[in-house]
Specification:
The protein is 51% helix and 11% strand. With 73 residues, it is mostly helical.
Length: 73
């Protein structure tokens, strides 16, 4: 068991905790449409007053597993 909210290897990813679905969605969007699209999607669903922190947290957790995905695919 790893003490981290998100892990991916190749095309397989897993996440745990209350933000698991958001992290998984952001990772899939980043891989398919690019990092900017993932940031935009996360910003859209983020709670009011927490948008910047929410996006930053999500990207901090998924970015190490993006393996060279471009900012705009």
């Amino acid at each position: 068991m790893l003490n981290q909210p998100f892990v991916a290897k190749g095309n397989v990813a897993t996440a745990g905790g209350c933000l698991a679905s958001q992290y998984l969605a952001a990772w899939v969007i980043a891989r398919l449409e690019g990092v900017n699209a993932a940031k935009s999607a996360m910003h859209y669903v983020a709670p009011v007053g927490e948008k910047d922190d929410y996006v930053t947290r999500a990207m901090r957790n998924i970015t190490p597993f993006l393996d060279g995905v471009l900012a705009a695919a």
